[in-house]
């Protein structure tokens, strides 16, 4: 058990290296807020107030209910006002506050559902070790109201249109959401001070090659909607211009330049 705890500590180091938030103020306003829930890796809940309640993207780390309540108060809302939660994926650092918003609809990629509902283990070693040491962090079937989607989906919620995109790889059912011009990509994009923006970290990812291929496809599929910002689940936001996409994709960047004559 002690060896597993030591392993978890070791695995936390790259997360620590990725600490601090970036440009969160770009996606904040009178009706929207970003709520970092855990030091040092800043697993973040994004909240948007609507005409009928609040939309959330992800639910932070264990103990996130308190920062969630404080954060929502800053936009004049409470956890009880949350109508919809858009889950990018069900790793334990992104579902922490689920009990605080049990009245909401939980949207999740179809291949993620069994993991969100505690019916299937995650494929990556850190998640399995975490569950062994810290216990199951997820709800059981019936404890939350889950709506899953098996293809890119458009949802109209009051005056808002939410576009959901599947980008499997980090986990089997990873998804991104475009809300009010911001593309929330979960852990599909990762940033550390060493590498800058990169595809999902190998060690926490079920299928790295698939995750990378999904990103190439994702950036192509969101292009018609011209997102103004892209935000990771760990509190980093950036302009998704060609320079950013080229940096993230590296040699997987699609060469769309016309062939020379
Ligand atoms: Zn993750």
TrEMBL record:
Transmembrane segments: none
Domain Metallo-beta-lactamase, residue spans: 42-229
Gene3D superfamilies linked: Ribonuclease Z/Hydroxyacylglutathione hydrolase-like (3.60.15.10)
Secretion signal span: 1-26
Domain of life, source organism: Bacteria
Cofactor(s) required, per the database record: Zn(2+)
Alphabetized PROSITE patterns for the sequence: PROKAR_LIPOPROTEIN (PS51257)
Keyword Calcium annotated: no
Key words, A-Z: Hydrolase, Metal-binding, Signal, Zinc
GO terms, molecular function: hydrolase activity; metal ion binding
SMART domains: Lactamase_B (SM00849)
Family under the similarity heading: Belongs to the metallo-beta-lactamase superfamily.
Protein's name according to its UniProt entry: Glyoxylase-like metal-dependent hydrolase (Beta-lactamase superfamily II)
């Amino acid at each position: 058990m002690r060896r597993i705890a030591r392993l978890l500590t070791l695995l936390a180091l790259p997360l620590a290296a990725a600490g601090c938030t970036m440009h969160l103020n770009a996606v904040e306003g009178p009706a929207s807020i970003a709520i970092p829930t855990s030091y040092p890796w800043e697993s973040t809940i994004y909240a948007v107030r609507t005409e009928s309640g609040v939309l959330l993207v992800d639910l932070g780390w264990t103990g996130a209910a308190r920062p969630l309540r404080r954060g929502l108060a800053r936009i004049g809302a409470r956890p009880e006002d949350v109508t919809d939660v858009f889950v990018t994926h069900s790793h334990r650092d992104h579902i922490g506050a689920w009990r605080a918003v049990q009245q909401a609809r939980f949207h999740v990629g179809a291949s993620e559902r069994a993991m969100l509902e505690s019916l299937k283990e995650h494929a990556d070693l850190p998640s399995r070790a975490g569950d062994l040491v810290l216990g199951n962090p997820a709800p059981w079937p019936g404890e939350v109201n889950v709506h899953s989607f098996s293809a890119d989906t458009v949802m109209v919620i009051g005056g808002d249109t939410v576009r959901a995109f599947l980008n499997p790889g980090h986990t089997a059912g990873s998804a991104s959401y475009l809300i009010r011009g911001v593309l929330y990509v979960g852990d599909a994009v990762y940033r550390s001070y060493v590498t800058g923006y990169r595809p999902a970290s190998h060690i926490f990812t079920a299928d790295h090659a698939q995750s990378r291929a999904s990103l190439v496809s994702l950036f192509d599929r969101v292009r018609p909607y011209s997102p103004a910002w892209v935000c990771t689940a760990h509190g980093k936001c950036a302009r998704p211009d060609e320079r950013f996409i080229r940096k993230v994709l590296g040699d997987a960047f699609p060469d769309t330049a016309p062939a020379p004559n």
